[in-house]
């Protein structure tokens, strides 16, 4: 849980210093800085913005750097910081610090500050390419399977080398080298598949639970599916050798763990009694798609929180849930299910809303006990704490909620 958050020179947030609670509501007009605060937390956790990947787009105008710093408290206190800076040519660089020491990779911060984002843009997740869907599975696997990240890095390194070799003008004279890469690539592809599959099998159980609540009419006909990106029943190196000519003509590797995907299918019967499997995005209405995405996100959250007890504590931390513009995409019933689910789990929430009445919804759920339903004997007063902030032109003011 983030106890203290400092933000400097990010968009319209010149200087912010907040002490946060377990549940935090940020209210304010459009453009006031609500989403920028979530962006800052996400940047610290992931090393990139969810709004724009170029730092020059979110570093405050006429400034050369922005900084986000946080003190967290899980089993013990630690500090995390990221600075994004621009040189005179506009190129960006990052400085990362953990417990006041410079670290070389973003993964150190990501391990200690998991974030789950639910925002209006994510509601189009299923209509986008496979990259976004693969990333949400890999986010789960990264935090639940400790060996996954190292093997993912090795796979990416080998894939880059293989693709470079495929583009080499003398590739036909380098086939022994290519086949050696293929053996290693295959080893790591199968390792990644095993990690993903283990997490996916757990995820589907929680997904079914959330579908039952959010889309009950589709509960018996809707399923989440995982695609490995290659035929995992045989060695990948064998398949790559068979497809070598096509890969050389294209200059990249077409199959492998980097092509993994997840999709959602709806099963029905036609007039002849045959079972038909169709993409859910082709059947569901726009509103139903939003509920489906919400089910995906909340089932991730439930799995993540429930898996913590089984993971060594140095890599297991409850996620910070970032919910942007709560009232924008969901109806009242869905909002209530979302909030009940989040409040029933041992995670921190930072919620933005245009509507000050959201405060009343949170208070009602809090009084009904939904913020204490998960492991009640282990929840402290701090775990159940709640704060509300009003933001105007990048300046935050804590509200009196007594």
Keywords:
ATP binding; ATP-binding; DNA replication and repair protein RecF; Glutathione S-transferase Yfyf (Class Pi), Chain A, domain 2; about 400 residues; 12 helices; globular; single chain; 6-stranded mixed sheet; Rossmann fold; alpha/beta; nucleotide-binding
Structural notes for this entry:
ATP binds at residues 28-35. One of its GO terms (cellular component) is cytoplasm. This is DNA replication and repair protein RecF. It holds the Pfam family SMC_N. Residues 1-361 form the RecF/RecN/SMC N-terminal domain. This protein is α/β, with parallel strands linked by helices and 402 residues long. The chain has 2 domains: 1-114 and 317-402, 3-Layer(aba) Sandwich (Rossmann fold); 124-316, RecF/RecN/SMC, N-terminal domain (Glutathione S-transferase Yfyf (Class Pi), Chain A, domain 2). It has 12 helices and 15 strands. The strands form 3 sheets. The protein has a 6-stranded antiparallel β-sheet. Helix 6 (175-214) packs across helix 7 (236-242). It is globular, with a radius of gyration of 23 Å. It starts with a strand and ends with a strand. The model has no long low-confidence stretch (mean pLDDT 92).
């Amino acid at each position: 849980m983030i106890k203290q958050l400092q933000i400097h020179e990010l968009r319209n947030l010149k200087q912010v210093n907040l002490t946060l609670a377990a549940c935090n509501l940020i209210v304010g007009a459009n453009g006031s800085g609500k989403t920028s605060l979530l962006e800052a937390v996400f940047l610290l956790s992931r090393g990139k913005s969810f709004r724009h990947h170029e730092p020059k787009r979110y570093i405050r105008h006429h400034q050369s750097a922005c900084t986000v710093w946080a003190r967290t408290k899980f089993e013990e206190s630690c500090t995390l910081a990221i600075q994004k800076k621009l040189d005179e040519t506009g190129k960006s660089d990052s400085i990362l610090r953990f417990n006041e020491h410079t670290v070389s990779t973003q993964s150190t911060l990501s391990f200690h500050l998991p974030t789950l984002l639910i925002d209006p843009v994510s509601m189009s997740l299923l209509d986008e390419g496979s990259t976004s869907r693969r990333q949400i599975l890999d986010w789960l696997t990264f935090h639940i399977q400790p060996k996954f990240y190292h093997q993912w890095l090795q796979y990416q390194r080998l894939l880059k080398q293989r693709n470079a070799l495929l583009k080499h003008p003398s590739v036909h004279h380098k086939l022994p080298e290519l086949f050696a890469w293929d053996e290693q690539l295959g080893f790591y592809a199968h390792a990644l598949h095993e990690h993903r599959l283990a997490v996916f099998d757990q995820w589907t159980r929680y997904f079914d639970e959330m579908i039952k609540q959010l889309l009950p009419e589709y509960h018996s006909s809707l399923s989440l599916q995982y695609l490995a990106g290659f035929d995992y029943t045989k060695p990948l190196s064998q398949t790559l050798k068979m497809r070598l000519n096509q890969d050389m003509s294209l200059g990249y590797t077409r199959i492998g763990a980097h092509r993994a995907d997840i999709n959602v299918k709806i099963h029905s019967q036609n007039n002849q009694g045959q079972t038909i499997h169709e993409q859910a995005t082709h059947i569901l209405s726009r509103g139903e798609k939003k509920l489906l995405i919400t089910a995906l996100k909340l089932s991730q959250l439930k799995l993540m929180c429930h898996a913590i007890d089984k993971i060594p504590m140095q890599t297991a931390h409850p996620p910070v849930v970032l919910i942007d513009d709560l009232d924008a995409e969901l109806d009242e019933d869905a909002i209530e299910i979302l909030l009940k689910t989040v409040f029933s789990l041992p995670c921190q929430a930072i919620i933005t809303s245009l509507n000050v009445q959201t405060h009343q919804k949170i208070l009602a759920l809090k009084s009904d006990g939904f913020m204490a339903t998960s492991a009640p004997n282990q929840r402290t007063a701090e775990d159940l704490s709640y704060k509300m902030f009003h933001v105007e032109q990048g300046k935050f003011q804590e509200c009196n909620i007594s």
